[in-house]
Amino acid sequence: MPGFKLVAVLTLFIAFSACQNEKGISFRLIDTDTFHFNNFVDCNMAEAWIGDTFRIFPGKYGEDPVWGAAHDLKFASGRHADETFSQPAAAYTAPLLPQNAAVGQAGLHGAVWFETVHQDSKDASGKTLYAIYHNENYPETLPYDSVTGEGYIDRHWPLGLTERITPAAVCRIGIMKSIDGGWSWDNRGLFLEDKQPRMILKPHNTSKTFGGGVGDPSAVAVGDYLYLFYGEYGYPGVYDSSTYDPQLERGGQCISVARIAISDLDDPQGKAKRWDGSGFTADWDGIGKPVASLQIPVSEGGGPASSPGGGFHWGPSVSWNEYLECWVMMMGRVEGQSWVGDELYISFNEHKDLGTGTNSQAWSKPQKLLEKPGHVLWYPSLQPMNTEEDIRSKRTSLRVGKKARLFFKYSDLGKYFSTYIIEFEKGGK
C-alpha cells in the first residue's frame, strides 16, 4: 500500500459555519503521498465486499459512435480497499456483460458506466449485486420510437464535447444484476430517463455537454427503498425554441433525488418515483424538482446546463458517515462550455431516514472542499482505508468513518488518484 505522511495540515480546516448545522460539523484535509490508481476511471467508484474480498467496478463498456466502442468496464479485488485500489491494470478482469441490442430493437443501447453497487442484504453470500449504471446514447444509437416515446430525433441536435463536429449525448440511468459477485451481469432495465420533449436543442443548447437527460448517479439504501441522487440536465417541461426560458431551465436542474422499492430492482422500469417538491410522486420519466439547497444561485454564477456560462453542481457521491451519524455528499461544479471546473464541494444531511417528510432535501449549502486552479476535477468520492476498523466494518464508499481517503479524477490529466485524507469532527450544539 502507498504510505502516507502528514506533510501539512491545510489551512482548509473549516469550521462548519457558512453551512452551519445543528452538530457543528467540521473537517480538515491532510496531505498524503500520492496514492495512484492504475486503471481507467470515468465515473463514481462502484464497490462491494464479497465475503472477505473488496471488489471495485470502474470503467466504461458498450457502443459509442463518437468516442468508440469501449471494453474497459472491469473489476479488481483485494483484501481491503488500499490493496484493491493499488492493483495494476493487468490484474483486472472483464466480466460477462450483456451485448448491445441492434438499433431499433429492445435491449441495451449505448455505453454504460457502473456508478453504485447495491448489495442484496437477503443473500448471505454477498454475491447478489445490483449495479446502478450511467448510460449514454445518441440519435444514431437510439433513434426516436413514436410508439414508446423512447429515443431522440436527429433534428436541431446540439454538438458534443469533441473538437470535431459530433452530436451531444443523452444520459439515462439503468440497473444490472449479478448473482455471482460481479463475474457476470444481466440488464434489468431503466431506472430513470428524460424523453425527447425535454431535450434542449439548437439554437439554445451551446454548452457541448448533453442534449439533456439524467445521469452521474449515486444510490444509497434506506429501509425498503434505494434512494438515487443524480444530475438533472433536461428542460423542466417541453422544450420549444420559441418559448424557451433559461431561468426556467436553470430552476429545474442540478442534483435531484428519486427512489425505488428495493423489491422492484429485478424489474425496475416504470417503478421509480422522483421528488416533485413535496414527495416522491413524479413518474420515473416525468418532471421532478432538484434539491433547492444544492443549486447555485444566479448571483453566485448559477445558470442553465445548456449555456456555456451556466454553473451547477453535479456528480454526487453520497455516503453514510458512521462517526458523524449523517449523510455526506461530495460533488463537482461545472463552470464552462465543456464540463470544466476546478473546485470540489461537500454537503451534509443529518436525517438518516431519507423517506420521512422533506428529509431527502435537507442538505446543507455546498461548501468548497478544495480548488486546483488550472485543472478539471471530476468524480470526487470518499473511500475506506487500510485500517483495522474499516476492514472489520467492511466499509465502502457508501459507508465511511471519521477518516477516509479523498479520491477524484484530474480529467485534464486523465488520471484518478488521492493525495488527501479527510478527517471529520463533531461539534457541540
Automatic annotation (TrEMBL):
<keyword id="KW-0732">Signal</keyword>
<protein>
    <submittedName>
        <fullName>Uncharacterized protein</fullName>
    </submittedName>
</protein>
<feature type="signal peptide">
    <location>
        <begin position="1"/>
        <end position="20"/>
    </location>
</feature>
